[in-house]
């Protein structure tokens, strides 16, 4: 189909309706499509589910020539291919599992293809470029464009080689798409793919019907059982390992609701059966690793709970975003532990040096999310480049603002005690020393005779655990390989009194306070 510019505006809406069956564009789709149709290089940053594929599929139908889509995962590619073909788009793919290469190439040359999906490693070969030269290409769409950035969480070196191809066909507009983009990654995509800054279109990331709640793990099984009792609809519990997934599914299943497990270690049959049962169910709980959820369309998920720290804010947004697709109220719970941060930092040490700063920034951003006493949604949205209001009114901190207190003194006492006991003991021992306990172990080590013995008294003792968590999160404390505590790189400014440590009061203490206030 060839459309002249003056007829374009009306015709795009007609195509949207006639080909895709949608009554209207959603969010920034119109803006992106208009820019693409005008032949201008564009980076579209849209959350999962916002409808990115339409942004190139619609132009692929409207424009004369084929749209080449670079996509990193063959499975994902084939899902989209089938969806495109289902609405009558002439689409094909060239991947290692396709066996109709010759036919696809012939169709491309004959101008009989609207869409051609390829993997990045294919797109960058000389053979592929020669093929493109013999055809008419209308658009390059680069899906999952964050893969081009080393700073991103999913770097694919092949994406770096796309630029020469894009530049060889310099007259063909390029559209990069991604759901994940902190400021660094965004910048990198623009530079790597040669897109001007004003070509960046960011869509709204807010999911106002999701209530966010974040808190430390404190008897996880009980916390989850309470949650399952409170939220009746279908829900997903994300666990961090396959073993944890199975164990949690078994434990939670005892409470009476249908519970199933899903992880990559289960046989394809079991996975498919569990997924189908979940999609059909109105009250099932799926305990799963993050392998579950990609490409699953279940609009009425009422809650998503993370049993441990997600990999990144992007990951958290995406996984929690599987709740409440129908727009009805839903909740997202995150249960974290200081050891999640310790483990994440340990893993970073094993990465190649170039990737470490990006990973560290990701952990720090998660630290800010879990530690804050302010609006969770505001933190999430600011991460995606938006300027949200200070309070959303629909997260734990907005609904019941927590008491936070200046615990810098306690933090300094704790750090000193860790230092003076030789940076090898766990929190339990440090707590005993600070509160002045005299046990055999303390006497044997001579820890009853050091200056920090007994310097924490009364209510302050209840602060030691939250303070240690805060210090672990901000890398002022680290765990040793034997589970002891040692000073981390950010301990110094706190010991020197240059940095404040505020903590949210532990619930018990808060309750006592409230009771006192009320009586
Ligand atoms: P993304 O790639 O951004 O995660 P998809 O392209 O897979 O999102 O689209 C998500 C869902 O939204 C799909 O089911 C799609 O059919 C639907 N969709 C896309 N655009 C529209 C629209 N304008 N109106 C209604 N539904 C839409
Ligand atoms: Zn809020």
From TrEMBL:
List GO BP terms, alphabetically: DNA recombination; DNA repair; DNA replication; SOS response
Which protein is depicted? DNA helicase RecQ
A GO MF label:
3'-5' DNA helicase activity
The UniProt record lists the Helicase ATP-binding domain at 33-199
- Family to which the UniProt record says this protein belongs: Belongs to the helicase family. RecQ subfamily.
Q: Which cofactor does this sequence's record say it needs?
A: Zn(2+); Mg(2+)
Source species of the chain: Sphingobium fontiphilum
- Give all residue intervals belonging to the Helicase C-terminal domain: 223-369
Report the enzyme's class at the first EC level: isomerase
Keyword Plastid (UniProt) = no
